[in-house]
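Schema walk-through. Below, the input block comes first and the output block second. Nothing else is stored per chain. Lengths vary across the set, and this one has 304 residues.
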Amino acid sequence: MRIFRHDDCLAHVTPPGHPEQVDRLRAIERKLQGIEVERTDCPMGHEDDILRCHPQTYIDRLRRAVPSQGWTQVDGDTFLSPGSWNAAMRAVGGITAAVDHVIERGDRAFVAARPPGHHAERETAMGFCLFGTAAIGAMRALEVHGLTRVAVLDFDVHHGNGTQDLLWDEPRIRFVSSHQMPLYPGSGYPSERGAHGQITNLPLRSGSAGAEMRAAWQPVLDDLARWEPELVMVSAGFDAHRDDPLAGLNWRTEDFAWITRAICDLAEKTSGGRVVSTLEGGYDLDALADSVAAHVNELNGSAK
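--- output ---
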């Protein structure tokens, strides 16, 4: 099991009071110090990988928007600071390096980087996200490593609208998102199935807890096992925790351990145990750190 991280991701500074803050990574790193895993710095990402999901015009527009000081607002709740470009490129480099490592080594990996990615649509930064990192990693698995079936599983409390947009026409990838509904960004209905019926949305009612989550995910994971993905990728958001301030689900830390263990079981059956996970949401620092530790412990315990 290997963790990919980089100090550049601490240089993406959001305005005071913004929930997607630098201290998220600091809280995670403090909590993970006692877990014995390999740690690797995220390399700088390459535009060739981004271009599989986002057009050059969008990349150039985002780069030009990065300020020399202060902040630039690119969406109602998405900001750029002077260090945001390097942070975003480290997040891209982290996910692509993690995919390479896991495919080549049959290992597991967690990318502890920010900004997050699952709300970034093809030409739109939104929801704290700039580039669709999970989708970028999945497309690298297909186009560089020659895989033909990749699963991208998202348990963030908010719908992964960006990942869905980026993968809408891609029949080699099955995307599954569980999320509170109604909630930002307002998408993620079961009727949203993708161009090839390869997308599954699992809306969860406000106030629901781990039992409802497990009942929604287990049959989907059983179905995925029959499809036999060669790599399992995870958009790991921890804002479904009952202590999180941005949503209204009531998951506990052990629920994140359960969904991680279930995903690892799927990977053991179909992909030689290969799992790549990347950090998405989670905004109560204590709940985030505890839940990430549970997630990483499960990934590490199942690693070869």
